[in-house]
Design goal:
By secondary structure, the chain is mainly alpha-helical. 56% of the residues lie in helices and 4% in strands. Strand 1 and strand 2 (23-24) form a beta hairpin. The radius of gyration is 26 Å and the shape is globular.
């Protein structure tokens, strides 16, 4: 395709019909046209505008699929444009779809934890189905362009070769031709970083192949690769033979978790972080090796002491943050996505030990987002409570009936459970919360109510103080 055809195709699309993150996509054509500029800064800025419109906070908009179609056309232009920038944008769209973790061969988290939440209904169910369809359309579009992506493995530009290899790996089809193309490109590749990307992509493709298709494949060579301080070999071992993970040598994993960061433009995995990719693979394979959390904690101590990046060098996530988030997912994965707070009684001995070890990193908290998504909403404040070091007014136990059974919960859990019930009801109401307030009025003294109110005012448990204080004052 040449640039004239690309521009003509852009003009044929009624972009206003495709909603974006901020409304109709009126300016999409002009951004996609600017993305074909020979000036790298111009093309990068234009593609950034496209991504911001079709993929806001990693949520795809309906305009994502037509935008991806033109990004793939941009990568196919014969003119010397920045093909790798277009491929990089396609990767980000693919990562935002629910197909991303399936590319690794694992069940997405949303399915694992679906049974722990109220069933989807109404508008939420409709949105989820539409998003499924959007993800499937994106996947189908990429499959159509696989032959061209294979051709880009021979590009003279190292960044284009690296990103073409990664997109092929993430598409995750049982395409023997793509795997053979990657192997041929790997044999000719001289750049060690691009070789690392190609091996990782080949590993992902190999996971989708039947055993008979993998004869004569250099699987053992990949698993033994010393590239990137052994990070490539470690990830290959985890993904190809997860049942052998217990045999991983601690020193190999320790060294891989300290692999230095690379330029994300040429190593697109995990924001340019081989160490972060190792941590991701450890969690995705749900490694049962008891030494893994300790090795990851060691890595956190290492990265905490490393100097900040040079001024002007942008890093969306540091190794400390990436490994911290993955470690929390390893330790609290079964709690991920829970809406109610985690109580100290629900902690396992391993989780309690883990939280106590996190204390050494204060004021930094590794994995803070994962902790918040697992029911520890304010880690710095809630950690002493979870470790039974302090108690507050909202930790007072109250025993009564809930959902047909007699339970003994701290006040914060009573209130939070009531908020959940009221929040999931069709009309905004306070029925469950009024029920809890009625129990409190019967069981608690004014002094106990005042103690609970003080705890809320100090910000505990994300309870709106105005709503709580107004109702509790009425009781007291």
């Amino acid at each position: 395709m040449n640039k004239n055809t690309y521009e003509a195709n852009l003009r044929e699309v009624s972009w206003s019909e495709f909603p974006g993150a901020y409304g109709p996509s009126f300016e999409m054509a002009s951004h996609l046209l600017a993305a074909s500029s020979r000036e790298e800064d111009t093309a990068r800025e234009a593609i950034g505008m496209v991504l911001g419109h079709v993929c806001h906070q990693q949520v795809l908009a309906p305009s994502a699929v037509p935008a991806a179609r033109f990004l793939l056309q941009l990568a196919a232009l014969r003119e010397p444009v920045h093909h790798w920038l277009a491929l990089q944008a396609v990767e980000q769209l693919l990562e935002s779809s629910w197909m991303f973790r399936e590319a690794f061969g694992f069940v997405p988290r949303r399915k694992e934890f679906a049974g722990k939440r109220p069933p989807l209904s109404g508008e939420t169910l409709r949105w989820a189905r539409e998003y499924d369809q959007l993800s499937e359309q994106l996947q189908a579009l990429l499959v159509q362009h696989v032959p061209h992506l294979r051709g880009l493995l021979g590009s003279t530009d190292a960044r284009t070769r690296a990103h073409a290899a990664r997109v092929l790996g993430l598409v995750g089809t049982r395409d023997e031709a793509s795997l053979k193309s990657l192997l041929a490109a790997l044999a000719a590749e001289e750049d060690p970083t691009v070789r690392a990307v190609m091996i990782l992509s080949a590993v992902l493709l190999a996971r989708h192949m039947e055993p008979g298709q993998l004869e004569n494949m250099p699987l053992r060579d990949w698993a033994a690769s010393p590239l990137l301080d052994g990070a490539v070999g470690t990830v290959a071992s985890l993904l190809l033979e997860p049942e052998q993970v217990l045999a991983l040598r601690a020193n190999s994993v320790r060294r891989a978790l300290r692999a230095h960061r690379l330029d994300v433009d040429i190593f697109p995995w995990c924001d340019g972080s081989p160490a972060g990719l190792v941590a991701e693979a450890l969690v995705l394979t749900q490694t049962a090796n008891e030494s893994i959390p300790q090795l990851m904690l060691e890595a956190l101590r290492y990265w905490k002491e490393q100097p900040e990046p040079d001024e002007g060098v942008f890093q969306e996530w540091s190794e400390f943050e990436i490994i911290g988030e993955r470690l929390v997912e390893q330790m609290f994965g079964e709690c991920s996505g829970r809406r109610e707070f985690l109580s100290r009684e629900e902690l396992s001995p391993a989780q309690r030990s883990f939280l106590s070890q996190l204390r050494e990193f204060l004021p930094l908290i590794p994995g803070v987002h994962g902790l918040q998504a697992s029911g520890i909403r304010s880690p710095r404040r809630d950690m002493p409570r979870l470790l039974s070091e302090v108690t507050g007014g909202m930790d007072q136990e109250m025993c009564w009936f809930w959902d047909g059974r007699r339970v003994s919960w701290p006040l914060w859990k009573w209130w939070h459970q009531a908020e959940l019930v009221d929040g999931w009801s069709e009309d905004s109401c306070f029925v469950a919360r009024e029920y809890v307030l009625d129990i409190m009025q019967r069981q608690l003294t004014p002094a106990q109510l005042t103690s609970a109110a003080t705890d809320v005012v100090e910000g505990a448990y994300d309870i709106p103080p105005a709503l709580w204080i107004g109702r509790v004052e009425r009781l007291a």
